[in-house]
Amino acid sequence: MRRTFEDALVWSAAGTRLFSGAVAGWGEEQYRAPSSLPGWTRKHLVAHVAANADALGNLVRWAATGEETPMYSSAGQRAADIVAGAGKPAAELAAWLCESADRLAAGTAGLGPAQWNAMVVTAQGRTVPATEIVWLRSREVCVHAVDLAADVTFADLPIGFLVALADDIVVRRGDASGPAVVLAAADTGDRWELPGHGVATRVTGPLAEVAAYLAGRPHALTTAPELPAWL
Question: How far apart are CA 115 and CA 66, in angstroms?
Fold first, then answer.
C-alpha cells in the first residue's frame, strides 16, 4: 500500500476544501443543475457527501467509545438521506455540508492512538481499523468534487491521491469480472494490472486519465475497454 494515514489526513482536508470551494456561493439554479452522475442533480451529490460525513462520524464514535455504531441504521437509510437532502433549499443544504464536515473533523481530531487502531465496519461490510475513515473520506470528497461538473477534474487532485486511488480500485477490481488490462501512467511511471477475461489490453496515458478510467468516470483513454462498476 503506497499511502499512509498521514497522507489520507492531508487528502481528506484538501478534498473537503476543494468540494466546498466548488459549491461556495451557489444558489438554487446551480444546485439543481445535473451532476456528472446519471440521474443525480448537484443537490443529490451534495446531500450524499454531507450524509457521508455524518455516517463516517458514526464510525468515529464507534472507535472513540467502543460502542458499535454502524454508518447507517438500515440498508435504506443512505438512499433516503440523499433523497431528503436533494429536497432541501440551497442554503439549508450548504449548511448541512459545512456542519457535517466540521463535525467529522472535530470527531477525528479527538481520537487517540489506541482509538485510531480500533476496528470498525464500513457500509460495505469490511472490518477495518479506524485509520481507514480518513481514506474513505478523502476518496469521497476528492472524486465527488469532480462529479459536481463544476470545472474540477482528476488533474486537479493530488498526485499521491490519484496513485492511491488507482491502487485501491485495482484491488477492488481484482475479482477478474471484467476485461484484462495493463495500465501505465506515462507521466509518473506507475503501472497497474487488472486481471480479467482475454488477452490484456495495454493502455498508456496520464495518471489523471488512468485514475478517472478506473473509477468509471469520463476519460481520454480511447483504447481502454469498458469496465464493470467499481462500487
Answer: 9
Question: 11 CB contacts (<8 Å, ≥6 apart)?
Answer: 134, 135, 138, 142, 158, 160, 161, 164
- Burial class from Cβ neighbours inside 10 Å (0-12, 13-18, 19+) for residue 221 reads middle
With a pLDDT cut of 90, the percent of the chain lying above it is 91
- CB of 231 closer than 8 Å to CB of 214: no
59 and 116 in a single domain? The answer is: yes
- What is residue 211's predicted lDDT score, i.e. its pLDDT? 98
Say if pTM beats, i.e. exceeds, 0.85: yes
Report the CATH number at residue 61: 1.20.120.450
Name residue 197's beta-bridge partners: 179
Does any domain span residue 222? no
Separation CA 153–CA 134 (nearest Å): 21
Separation of alpha carbons 101 and 111, rounded Å: 16
Residue-wise pLDDT for 20-62, tens only, equals 999 999 999 999 999 999 999 999 999 999 999 999 999 999 9
Instruction: Convert the pLDDT of each residue in 107-150 to its tens digit.
Output: 999 999 999 999 999 999 999 999 999 999 999 999 999 999 99
DSSP string over 31-100? HHSB-SSTT-BHHHHHHHHHHHHHHHHHHHHHHHH-----SSSSTTHHHHHHHHHHTS-HHHHHHHHHHH
Nearest CA among 86, 77, 81 for reference residue 31: 86
| Cα distance between residue 13 and residue 142, in whole Å | 10
Q: Which domain holds residue 61?
A: 5-152
